[in-house]
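Q&A log
Question type: sequence-to-structure
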Amino acid sequence: QVQLVESGGGLVQPGGSLRLSCTGSGRSFRAYAMGWSRQAPGKEREFVAAITWSGDKDYYTDSVKGRFNISRDDANTLSLQMNSLKPEDSAVYYCSAGSNTLRVRIGEADYWGKGTLVTVSS
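Response status: OK
Response body:
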């Protein structure tokens, strides 16, 4: 069993930056691919970014490429650095863990956090 807890959400102005964190616990946490997804009001949840268990490869949805960066440390923390934020980035952001990055990317992760709200507004 893996437990995931997100933090770092909040209100930020357009063009600003925010760093989300996801702390994982439970055995075999390091063996999972990890990722971030988001869901805006009235919209379906969408994939944002994913990273392999080893951290050697990452993936991004087109709308955040060049602005967001996913990373994980040697312990139990997954991060999402978000720069040049836009109002359309506003959503609840969810951390997830799955057996591989494909499952994370298509929304079939094995574990999910409860989410953290990001609001981009002036």
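Response note: The first helix runs from residue 101 to 105.
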